[in-house]
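Long-time lurker. I teach an intro course on protein structure, and each term I like to show students one example going from raw sequence to a predicted 3D structure in C-alpha cell notation. This year I'd like something fresh instead of my usual example. Would anyone be willing to generate the C-alpha cells for the chain below so I can use it in lecture? Attribution to the forum is fine with me.
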Amino acid sequence: MFTPSRYFPTNRRQTSVRTPSVRSKDPGDCPTSPGARPTLSRSANVPDPSSTRPAPTSPSAGRPRALGALRLSNVTSATTSPTRQRAAIRLCAERLDLTLISEAADFGVSARTTSPFERPSLSPWLRRPHEYDAVVWSHVDRAVRSVAHMAELVTWGRQYHRILVFGLPESDHPLVVTPHADGLIVRRCMDLAHDAEQEARTISSRVSASHEVLRATGRYGGGLVPFGYRSAPHPSGSGWCLTLDLETAALARTIVEDVHAGQSLVSVARKLNASGAPVPRDRHAQLQGRPTGGRRHDRDFERFRWTSGTLSKVLRNPSLMGHRTYQGQTVRDTEGLPVLIGQPLLSEDEFHALQDVLLARSNGSHRRSRTTALLTGVAHCSGCDGRMYFAARKRYAYGDYVCRATSRSEICPAPAGMRSDWLEEYTLSRYRQSGATDATVSREQLLHDGVRVTVTRGRRGGGPARLVGPDTSRLTFTVVGSLPDQLQP
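-- Reply from a regular --
Happy to contribute to a lecture. Here you go:
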C-alpha cells in the first residue's frame, strides 16, 4: 500500500526546481536514452494558475500536496467528462491521503499529438514542481496516448522526485509511480500507454476512412473551409457541402487582379490588413459564430493579419477551381477527374495563368529545413515584441538575428538586429551566470527555462568600438521559468 509519508515526511525541505537528475540504479529505470531530459515547450494561452485554484480538500499541512490534471480532446455542451474526471481525481486523492491544491484543465487538447509538457494549462505547472508533491490523473489516457510521452513523464517524476498517480476505473486502487518505482510498475505504465496509443491510432484510422468517403462524394467533413467558400446543406439532404461565400469570393477575385496588375504579395497583404478583411482562419470563425483571433508565438491577437505566406497558400490552392483538396492536392475520383466542392472561383485557364505569375516572381522552390538557430523563440525585438530570426551572411561564418515584422505584414517602429555570434555568446554567458548549467546548452533547454533576450534598435554610425562586441545596454536578459531570479544587465 502506498504511504505518502514514506516519500514526503512532514518536516522535509522542499526540493529545488533545479535539482540535477540522478540516474537511479533501480531495475525500473525509465527506458529512455541516458541523460535524456523531457523537452518542456513554452506553451500558448497559459492561464494564471492562481486564478483557477480551488480550495484544498483538507487544511492539514502534513498531507502531501497534489495537482489534479484534466484533459479532453473535444468539448461539447453535452459532455460530462470533466465532472467524471474530477470525481475520479478526488477519489484517488482521498485513498492516498493527498491534499488537492489546484487543477490543470486542458480541454480541446489531443494527447496523441501534444505531450503533457506542451499543454497550455499543465505545462506551466510541470515547470514548477516545487509547488506540489504529486500529479493525479483520472486515467492513463487522460495523461498520455504515447509511450514516448509516458517515458517523459516518468523521467520528469524521477528528476524532480514527484509522484505520478493514474486512476484505474477497472481497479479499486490507482496506479502510483513513485520516484523509486520498480521495473514492474514502470513496465505497467508503458503497457497502458501502449494500449492508449494503439486505441488512438485505431480511432484516427476510422476518422481518416470516413473523411476519405466524404471527400470522394463531394461532402464537407469539417475543418477549415477554403477561402471564398462556406458550408451549406448537401443537395442530397444528407450532410454538408461547400458553396460560394459571396463576400470573400469577391475579395479573392480582387486579390487575383492585384497580383496580375504587378502588386507584390506583401503590398497586397498590407492593403487587406488596412481594410480589415479577415484572413481565412478568422472568416471561418465568423461563419461558425466563434470569436476571431487567438494565440500565436506567445502573443494574443484579436484578429490575425494577412501575410505574404497566407496569400501564397490561398492563391496556390486548387480549391480556387472548385476542386476538393487534401494536403494541398486535388482529390480525384476513380476515373481521375477532380472531385468538385462547388462553383469555381477561377477557371482552370485563369488558375494556371495565376500560377505562372507567382512562379515567375519566386526565387525557385526549396524545402525549408528545421531551424538550427540557437535563439529562435528566445530573441525578441523591443520595437514590436516579435520574434527575431536568423539571417545568414554570405562568406561569413556568422549571421544576424533580425526583426521580421514585415514578413507578418506589420510595421515595426524600431526594428532591431544584432550579429548572431555576439547575441548567442551574451545569452549563454548570462544563462550560465544564473547557475543553470556549465554544460552545453541547447535551444530546447533555453525555451524550457523560459529564457528571453530583448534587443533594442542600435544607433547609426559609431567607430572601431562597435566591432569589439555587442552593446549590452541594448540587451535585456530575463528568465521566467525555473531559474532562481530574473537577471537584467
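Some talking points for your students: The chain is about 30% helix and 15% strand. Residues 9-60, 364-370, 481-489 have pLDDT under 50 and may be disordered.
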